[in-house]
NAD-dependent epimerase/dehydratase domain-containing protein
Amino acid sequence: MAKNILITGAAGFIGGSVLASFVTRESGPIKDANLFAAVRSAEQVQSLSKLGVKTLQLDLSDGKAVKDAVVSNEIDIVVHTASAIDTNIVSALIDGLGLRREATGKATYFIHTSITAVFSAEGGWPYGEVKDTDPIFEKEKELGDANPARKVTLLVTEASKARGVTSFILPVPQVYGRGTGEWRKLSVAIPAHVRTSIQHKSVHKFDVEGKPHAVHISDLAEFYALLVERVLLDEDIPSGEEGYYFTTVHGTQWWAIMQKLAEGLHKRGLVAEPKVEIWPSDDVAAEWLGFPRAHIRAIGVSSGDIVTVKAYEKLGWQPKWDEKMFMESLDDEVQDCLDLDTVGSSLFDAFKTSK
């Protein structure tokens, strides 16, 4: 019997690209699955419905509605890309999957999208290098839930175990490239800097260079597909407390990225000089970029030493993009922002009230 897969955030950059990857699979178990897409607006429903998937207009802040949607649509697998920091959404989705498992006696699965910033010193990670084969859950338990993204990953593992749901956690690094979804096609960080630089006629960087890991959106979408395929084939792969899967492919150098953006914007006459200034303060950076002040350092300067293992060894992931290709594509990133930056991102909405 075909499995039912729900993708939350299906109108977003990651979720939309994951959905597009699933829809276009020409063979394999995903092709035979029933795809459901959760979005927020009627306009998004209309846009995504043409893909031949069942599109649900769903307010994810309404826990009862979320749980009922999972149960009534007989969802077996949730691919959650809508928020890394909202405990209420996660709880409702897992509760729904738990009820589904109880009703059928069959396995249900929750795939949670987190962020790699929690594994940086700025994100409260004191252990240095981390591999996804390490006992990450135990270390996160020791650290507690001061970081909101870590609070959610702990909840995912513990609540899933309590409800008999099989869980996976995917900490995602900086994502770049043009998305393939029907709605939002841009990431968050680079478009925010491009948008702000144009508005203020100058490009800025933080006083400390961040060196975050990164992945191209096409490689990331393929990773999700490979993981879901293993689930659909009922393969024995690490899950639960051992279910962390890093999706980092290569490092980046943020100052070099900003310099490339400055050159690309200057040649288009959009900034005054082809050089990069230091932010006058974190307050200014947070205000201009539209990011939460409480987390601006983690967003802007985090690095971390993150090693991807299981994606390669357990799933056979073969990313196509590397750092050289990324740096060579930055002028395309600028042009994509100019062409496509029409939809605001809600990634940090829940953060904006945090202190």
